[in-house]
């Protein structure tokens, strides 16, 4: 059986590594906060949610498949948590059940006993899975969960449990082990075959000596250790194949429950996150994924999920319509919400492409390939390279991996040099990326850089962080052309006064 809750036709590959550069995404977009909220203190949930979040889908149909499963999960959270508990409980049972198999010092009989014990524990969990399917299958609408319950009902019928129960009882060999064998040319035993045990008592006339014997037997003396060892070896040769088959069956069920637990873990993480956001009143919605395109983007009341989770304050969302404009340049007042908006775009795109809801009233975007961030960094404390050298090196790494329809988020990039040189580097990089069909969001304080794209009347959208006449920030971006000032004077007075004329009195 397969889970197929993250892909319509295959299981999720949890053995695959994380994409190159994922450390930059986690750092720049502050994804640790989002992952922690999904995990709710559970290390396994954190590992699963991180992997699914960072290995997004590129097919809108696959994204909608997950969205439908997630919608079912949000509608029936208790059932999903019960399913997860069954899968997790099966794996916990395996660690707690006495006995094992496959160890260095094991023998066929102990291997068989351990495998049977694990199978019995797994069968108990399969019964719970079947009961949940019987009770709740009809309430689900998504293809993924309906297929899961249909498989459970089809494969785990009453006949299955009756047959498995009979086999497990026989494998306990409570009446002894029945083995057939032949003698080889040298008088050694060959062709050992384990037989189903039947009624091994002879007929009463035979026991009274009134009929010829149909079988002969002998007994091992209680203190004959060598004889006991020989008898155990004979029994082991007969039970070895059965022990291996039982162990393989137990491993198969372990793998199924492991995969079911892992795929459900992502949806449990989504439930945890949805509850946190709902408690604060943050709007969420299922985004609308479109085909790969750098010219499809629109959102309403888009929030930064990480910021919402970190602070009890109420934040302002942004409305942006950037269809047909693959370049978005964000300028304006310092501390006005520019970097927050940039993070909100990156996080929302990741959430959409792994099949999640987003923190917005609406979000529509073309599916991208990889997502890259090029954020300002602190200067190298070891003085092995300057800030500009580091920025150019990181840009070179991105350029080596860039593909059409990817997304690049720039935050105060190329600030490690003067206005003229930094603006020229930025212009050349942006123009090259636009020619490669790459979507760009660029936060900058460089007026010359931003205004050069305004003057060329290219396909760019200009957003500006607002500042009230008294210096207050609205933390909301408006569609406005860049200004030749970033209101650095506000920062000066906030940190000052520095000059004598600024002193009071």
Explain this structure.
The strands form three sheets. Strands 8-9-10-6-11-12 form a six-stranded mixed sheet, with helices on both faces. Strands 3-7-4-5 form a four-stranded mixed sheet. The protein has helices at residues 22-28, 31-39, 43-54, 60-75, 77-96, 108-136, 143-155, 158-171, 204-207, 225-280, 305-310, 338-353, 387-401, 419-435, 447-455, 488-495; strands spanning 178-183, 189-195, 288-290, 297-302, 318-321, 327-332, 362-366, 371-375, 407-411, 439-443, 460-467, 473-479. The mean pLDDT is 84. The protein is 50% helix and 13% strand. The longest helix has 56 residues, at 225-280. The protein is α/β, with parallel strands linked by helices and 505 residues long.
Residues in β-strands, percent: 5-15%
Main beta sheet strand tally, sense and closure: 6 strands, mixed
- Helical residue percent band: 40-55%
Q: What value does the Rg take, in angstroms?
A: 33 Å
How many alpha or pi helices? 16
Structural class: alpha/beta
The order of strands across the largest sheet is: 8-9-10-6-11-12
The secondary-structure element order is HHHHHHHHEEHHEEHEEHEEHEHEHEEH
Spans of at least 5 consecutive residues whose pLDDT stays below 50 are none
| Spatial separation of the terminal alpha carbons | 81 Å
List how many beta strands DSSP finds.
Answer: 12
- In round numbers, the mean pLDDT is 84
Shape estimate: elongated
